[in-house]
Fold this protein.
Amino acid sequence: MNLLVWNFPQRCAARDVRRFLEHELGRYASDIEVYGAGTADAYATAKLATDVPYIGEAIAQKLCHQRFRDEPLRARASASGDASIRLH
């Protein structure tokens, strides 16, 4: 499963996003990559340690209830390998 997380504030660095996601996801995610840090279009991807769709969605929903520097996060999981389609 792949995870896509977005709606990061523009004033964040890639390092801060990565640390936040490593802390929140722990051993459930690997290969965390951050793209466009410092821009309005910043997002992060991660490989989840599960292939069960409902667990991936539960992880995404957990992140949707989190805030990063006062911004509510958005997230979605995808079993197909393409979590890049964002819902705004």
